Amino acid sequence: MQNREEAVGKIIAVCTAPEKGMIKHDVGEGLLIEGIGIKGDAHAGFMHRQVSLISIEDIRTMMEKLPDLVPGSFAENLTTEGFDLSQLKIGDRLKVGETVLEVSQIGKECHTKCEVFKKTGDCIMPQKGIFTKVIKGGRVKTGDIIRFDD
Predict the structure, then answer these.
(1) Do 71 and 13 contact (CB within 8 A), yes or no?
(2) For 18, phi and psi rounded to 5 degrees?
(3) pTM
(4) What is the CATH architecture assignment of 8-148?
(5) How do residues 26-58 score in pLDDT, each as one tens digit?
C-alpha cells in the first residue's frame, strides 16, 4: 500500500458513452463539469456517481477470463494505472489533471448483470469501482497524473 504522499498514478483512458448501458469508449480527453460529471457522458448528472474510476490492473486480472476487455468495458469513465484505488475511502479527494474529485461511493450493486458478468460469471465494478463527485471541473486527459488532493 502506498502512503498518501507517494500515491501517484496516471490516467490511461478517458471513456464516455452517449447512452446508459453501453460500453464506454476511450475518447482521450474530457471536460469535467463541477457537480455534473464528464460532458457528453450518459452518466453525467447522476447524483453522487458523476465520474467512475477503475484500475487497468484490475481490468488485466479480468482479461485472464475475457481477453477482449479494454478500458471502458466496465463503463468506467477514468481508467487509472499505478494508483492503488483500494486504499481510497469515502470523502477522499483526488487531483486528476486540472480537476478535483471526491470519492462518494465504493463499489455498487448491479441490479442487471452486465455483458462481462454474463460471459465470465464475474464483474469487478461491484467491488473495485470507485465513484466520485466533481468538486473542481476542468480538462482531464490520457497521461494526466492522479494523486491525493490534501
Answers:
(1) yes
(2) -75, -20
(3) 0.89
(4) Beta Barrel (2.40)
(5) 999 999 999 999 999 988 887 888 999 999 999
Coil, strand, or helix at residue 126?
A: helix
Among 63-67, 81-85, 127-131, the least confident range: 63-67
Give the DSSP H/E element, type plus range, for residue 26. strand 25-26
**Stretch (H or E) spanning 92:** none
Q: Is 106 exposed, middle or buried (0-12, 13-18, 19+ CB in 10 A)?
A: middle
Residue with cell 470523502: 91
Burial class for 63, CB neighbours closer than 10 Å (0-12, 13-18, 19+): middle
- Residue pair 58/124 in contact (Cβ under 8 Å)? The answer is yes
